[in-house]
């Protein structure tokens, strides 16, 4: 086993196991954010369909990314709505002995106020509502505490998980009045944040420089645009959810108002497993199913064509629950040189 320090929002609580080391001279009336500790296996591989695959641990949650997008050009999708995955959540973190050890280190330090020390001693030791850290239930459950989603530490929403740690017996559901307690749906949302999709640089024909009033064909290499997925699991609970992203359309933005797109909306739908059609000889005068026509030269510069792929996001879980999450987008710019057609008069 190895110790993994993960950020946790502690609010009126907390398990500041490393506070005496990190802040030996701190004096505070109300504890604030601080590290907390959880135990995870140093071997973070996982079994999927009988095969051992690479996984990474983030506190109590393990992410399996073998079917995710990869490569230097891959990036995270952005929700098409204002929705975001949860900034914090509650999940198993301590056995009774671990919590006992952590809290006693805090109480012996000079950091907490007497009022806070009394409150937490009553909560964990003196039967209000727990007695002696529930040591009589060792091996029968876990103390649940708050985790902050990686990268969301400064998000105000991360401050919402400010409850004292609470006990959950193995096999039982967490208290209904704790909305941030981890669920399959929340695991799916956290996996959403780990989704990576390939770059959206499109193939263009003509390739190097197009001409004014000449339809330019655009398409994507469909071999790279396949569904991708990430699975988020809580091994301690035997709970997991898989979030899958599937490309559904390509949006073309020419980079200038002096242009028209094909189709007029600029939205190229996926059809027959591909986005747009590759250009073929003899189609120069035809209207491309996906593309752009520039009406003015780019002069000595170029236009910034933006190609944005929309991904449909859905999830399934080991409980049988599942559904849809907000669509995601990922786009990239590329330079397009547009030249005047030169005519020679004799």
The low-confidence parts are 1-58
Give a count of the beta strands, DSSP E runs of length 2 or more. Answer: 23
Strand content: 35-45%
Number of domains: 2
Radius of gyration: 27 Å
Reading the helices and strands in chain order gives: EHEEEEEEEEHHEEHEEEEEEEEEEEE
| Helical residue percent band | 10-25%
Characterize the biggest β-sheet.
10 strands, mixed
The shape is elongated
Helical/strand content category: mainly beta
Give the N-to-C terminal Cα separation. 84 Å
Signal peptide: 1-29
Protein name: Enoyl reductase
Organism: Streptomyces thinghirensis
Keywords: Signal
What does this entry look like structurally?
The protein folds into two domains: 2-43 and 87-179, no CATH class; 197-339. It has four helices and 23 strands. It has helices spanning 19-22, 96-108, 114-124, 184-192; strands at residues 2-8, 34-40, 46-48, 51-53, 55-58, 61-64, 75-76, 78-79, 88-94, 141-148, 166-169, 196-197, 203-205, 209-211, 216-219, 228-234, 239-253, 259-262, 267-271, 274-275, 291-294, 303-317, 322-339. A hairpin with a 2-residue loop joins strand 5 and strand 6 (61-64). The longest helix is centred in the N-terminal third of the chain and has 13 residues, at 96-108. The protein is elongated, with a radius of gyration of 27 Å. Mean pLDDT is 82; it is low at 1-58. It comes from Streptomyces thinghirensis.
Q: How is the secondary structure organized here?
A:
Elements: E1 2-8, H1 19-22, E2 34-40, E3 46-48, E4 51-53, E5 55-58, E6 61-64, E7 75-76, E8 78-79, E9 88-94, H2 96-108, H3 114-124, E10 141-148, E11 166-169, H4 184-192, E12 196-197, E13 203-205, E14 209-211, E15 216-219, E16 228-234, E17 239-253, E18 259-262, E19 267-271, E20 274-275, E21 291-294, E22 303-317, E23 322-339
Parallel strand pairs: 14-23
Antiparallel strand pairs: 1-2, 3-4, 5-6, 6-16, 7-12, 8-23, 9-10, 10-11, 13-15, 15-21, 16-17, 17-19, 17-22, 18-21, 19-20, 22-23
């Amino acid at each position: 086993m190895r110790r993994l320090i993960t950020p946790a929002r502690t609010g009126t609580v907390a398990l500041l196991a490393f506070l005496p080391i990190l802040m030996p001279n701190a004096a505070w009336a109300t504890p604030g954010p601080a590290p907390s500790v959880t135990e995870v296996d140093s071997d973070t591989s996982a079994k999927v369909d009988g095969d051992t695959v690479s996984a990474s641990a983030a506190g109590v949650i393990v992410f399996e990314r073998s079917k995710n997008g990869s490569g230097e050009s891959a990036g995270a999708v952005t929700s098409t709505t204002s929705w975001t995955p949860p900034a914090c959540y509650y999940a198993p973190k301590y056995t009774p002995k671990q919590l006992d050890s952590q809290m006693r280190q805090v109480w012996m330090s000079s950091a907490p106020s007497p009022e806070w020390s009394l409150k937490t001693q009553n909560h964990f030791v003196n039967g209000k509502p727990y007695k002696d850290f529930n040591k009589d239930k060792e091996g029968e459950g876990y103390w649940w505490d708050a985790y902050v989603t990686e990268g969301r530490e400064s998000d105000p929403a991360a401050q919402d998980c400010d409850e004292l740690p609470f006990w959950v017996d193995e096999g039982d559901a967490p208290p209904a009045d704790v909305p941030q307690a981890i669920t399959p749906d929340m695991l799916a949302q956290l996996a959403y944040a780990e989704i990576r999709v390939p770059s959206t640089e499109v193939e263009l024909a003509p390739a190097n420089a197009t001409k004014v009033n000449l339809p330019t064909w655009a398409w994507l290499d469909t071999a790279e645009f396949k569904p991708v997925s990430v699975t988020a699991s809580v091994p301690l609970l035997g709970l997991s959810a898989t979030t899958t992203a599937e490309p559904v359309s390509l949006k073309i933005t020419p980079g200038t108002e002096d242009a028209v797109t094909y189709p007029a909306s600029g939205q190229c739908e996926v059809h027959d497993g591909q986005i747009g059609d590759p250009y073929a000889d003899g189609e120069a005068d035809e209207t491309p199913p996906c593309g752009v026509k520039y009406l003015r030269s780019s002069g000595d510069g170029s236009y910034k064509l933006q190609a944005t792929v929309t991904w449909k996001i859905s999830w399934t879980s080991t409980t049988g629950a599942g559904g849809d999450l907000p669509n995601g987008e990922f786009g990239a710019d590329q330079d397009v040189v547009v030249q005047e057609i030169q005519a020679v008069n004799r």
